[in-house]
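Example 3.2
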Amino acid sequence: MGPFRSQSLTMFLTEQEWFYFPARDRAGQLLVRLGSERGLGGWGDCPCPWPPEQVARQCRQLRGQLAGFDPLQVEELHVVLAHLPAPVRLALESAVWDLLGQELGVPVHGLWGGAFRSRVPLAMQVLWDPQQDSPQRLWPLLQEWHSQGLHTLLIAPEKPPGIDHWSQLPEAWQGWKQEAQLLVDLAGAVPQEPLVWLEQLRRAGVVGVIDPGQAEVAGQALAAASPLPVWTSAGVESPQRAWELLAHQATHALALDPFRLGSWLRLRECVAVAAAAGAPVTLDLRRGWQPTLALGCHVASSTVALGRPLWTTGPSWQALPEKRPLLPGADSLLTVPRTSGSGLELDRAALEPHLVS
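Structure, written as tokens:
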């Protein structure tokens, strides 16, 4: 209790800054900094839920709404901001946890029960454009990431593949003999005769599929008959929904996307649901940047059930100017920061061009 005794438990938010990063072919990214009267600042990020022309107006409306807010009242944050899109609420909560840890002088995982593990494994998403690249051309990318020590790779199409693209995958990967595990993001769709196709994937070395949509086989959910483990990410928006999917055998495992849940508190409840059901669970952080990745590491560190690789993307490691980069080691493990807050230290001056006025 030393850190808590040495700090005053009276604190207030005095600053709210938003930074916007537009993207040409997908949603842009928002970054938020919440500051306290002591000059400390916490960071959060999220995919931007608004069209570019609305970003400035929406951010101006948010400024001042949290002025004087007590970061200790994290649950109250979601009551005050219930009208906001879930990703924005998640970004603000991330910043609050970061700031709260700094104010109290403890890492975020210390606020969530302590550290069960000091290093967290990562799973890398490998993007595939089926309109431009054949499945065979994925090989160099898979080999490159595997050579860097990554043992779990997620193949994700950038555009919806056609049936012929899906049918080429098993044959293209018959020679995959590496130790890395392969998962395929089905982007909400499956080809015809899905059970035959999934069996071919299994023989090709694929160890699981992600979000196969609402496909049914003989009146049953695909997961009930699938020869491969089915992971669900897109359909988990609450602890209740997580329980329904597992109880009805609509999925075998959960990959929790914090932006869909809109809250790290709700995410931890979903982890508890999966643990109670005996189902594998991990975090799907593919839509996040460094602040989300840092908070995900603290969640995994403080939660026994989250021992599987966290799903992420390479660009998220380098999207923002960090003074102390959060980077994986040669063995693809991230060392969980032990400094106060999330451990993330961004170069505020370098972000100035992206400040939303």
